[in-house]
């Protein structure tokens, strides 16, 4: 009886190990925006677009065998909290790039920390990721955007720029994997240099 139970247990462990081995590795992209406070509408606009972009990237097979994971942090439009968020993302080795922060003062507070940690920052709210009129975005995108929101909400001025920022990063991640055989902070920065992406709002790049 014990031998039979032991065999079943060992078989279960083997199946579990096989399942774990088949899990795709992950690569993380940070998103920092004001999810609370006076600018919260902008923050939710960004996170819905980010979720849509990440969902589409993973549905297409991820990037270079990696599944993309979104790490979203709230800076409330506050410079000190923006710096704290940047520090938190910097100590997570899985995070290879960041999109954010929207306000000039929060971006300025966080940018030096990202630079020190070798993280590329795609700054929302500034060219080429400045707010754009959502009425100019394709109907198919607006429909997909509404579908990821809890109440079929309409896209705002950061919907297109955020989506394009993640599109540019997906291209950079793929190029980093192809040219260096791995996705790291350094390889992503190298891939972003001189890279352009034709997005919903026009041509975007790492400024």
UniProtKB/TrEMBL annotation:
It comes from the Bacteria. SUPFAM superfamilies: Periplasmic binding protein-like I. InterPro entries: Leu-bd, Leu_Ile_Val-bd, Peripla_BP_I. The keyword Transport applies. Gene3D superfamilies: 3.40.50.2300. Residues 27-123 form the Leucine-binding protein domain. PROSITE patterns: PROKAR_LIPOPROTEIN. Pfam families: Peripla_BP_6. Residues 1-23 form the signal peptide. GO terms for biological process: amino acid transport. Keywords: Amino-acid transport, Signal, Transport. Belongs to the leucine-binding protein family. This is Leucine-binding protein domain-containing protein. It comes from Candidatus Promineifilum breve.
